[in-house]
Amino acid sequence: MKTIDWEYLAQHMHPREPESDKNTYGRVLAVCGCRDYIGAPFFAAQAAVRTGSGIVTLALPSCIYPILAAKLNEPTFVPLETGADGKISADCLPSLDRRAAILAGPGLGISEGVTQAVKTIIEQAECPLVLDADGINALAGHIDVVEKAKYPVILTPHSHEFARICDIPSTEHREAMASAFAGKHRCVLLLKGHRTIIADPHGALYQNVHGNPGMAKGGSGDVLSGIILSLLGQGLDPLAAAACGAYIHSRAGDLCANDIGEFGMTPTDMLRYIPRVLKPLNSREW
């Protein structure tokens, strides 16, 4: 098993081209949020912006659109009409074409409508996907739908989510289980934890050794999924996007903890440290 480090990141991410525009760095879509979960769309969308995406579009329930529109300046928005529960369904999904990558899951909540929406995204998307949080929970009992995707899928569960979708009591043997899962379902699996494991369907296995307990707060995983979404949209292959995303996320958390401490640091704080992690990739000094 290989360890992700700065050299790995530098091999897969390069300085931005002088002759480029917003379309050069990916049009990505994040399908996130419900009436009860407003923070997740913010974290995912802002993380994608901070990681360098050209255009980030946030598709979210119309009932929370005014709140997010007041908080976010950079993303564009697609408000979605929902039922009385404030959650999305397959009927209200936005257009899935002309996207470089799609994220589905953060803050969607759990309902039959959400489950059908996630299945539809998996089956109809014409680009790579990231499934996180409730996008993963929605697949409990029918994880095989991942195999119907036209393009690669990255799943980013923590141990409890992984146990739920696999219908197992524990994830004691993480490396072997992650590798077997990725191979069986032909996906990239990022299994979060103290030592995050990344596995692909061809047998590659990586671990991330950075990060700290201050990152163990609600919203931190949404930041990670937004980072990975951005990297996919910028053209990294799924394994590299997941591995580099884990590294950027954890190093931002470490820089944040070093400056303000593990107890009080928040996912909002971590967003500000993503550019510091990526700064050495600059093509020039100003």
Topology readout:
Blueprint: E1 2-3, H1 6-12, E2 27-31, H2 39-51, E3 55-61, H3 65-71, E4 76-80, E5 101-104, H4 112-124, E6 129-131, H5 134-137, E7 153-155, H6 159-166, H7 174-185, E8 188-191, E9 196-199, E10 205-208, H8 220-233, H9 238-260, H10 267-271, H11 274-278
Parallel strand pairs: 1-10, 2-3, 2-5, 3-4, 5-6, 6-7, 7-8
Antiparallel strand pairs: 8-9, 9-10
Task: Write up this protein.
- The chain is an alpha/beta fold and 286 residues long.
- It is 39% helix and 14% strand.
- It contains eleven helices and ten strands.
- It has helices at residues 6-12, 39-51, 65-71, 112-124, 134-137, 159-166, 174-185, 220-233, 238-260, 267-271, 274-278; strands spanning 2-3, 27-31, 55-61, 76-80, 101-104, 129-131, 153-155, 188-191, 196-199, 205-208.
- The chain has a ten-stranded mixed beta sheet with strand order 1-10-9-8-7-6-5-2-3-4, with helices on both faces.
- β8 (188-191) and β9 (196-199) form a beta hairpin.
- α8 (220-233) packs across α9.
- The radius of gyration is 17 Å and the shape is globular.
- It starts with a strand and ends in an 8-residue tail after the last helix.
- The model has no long low-confidence stretch (mean pLDDT 96).
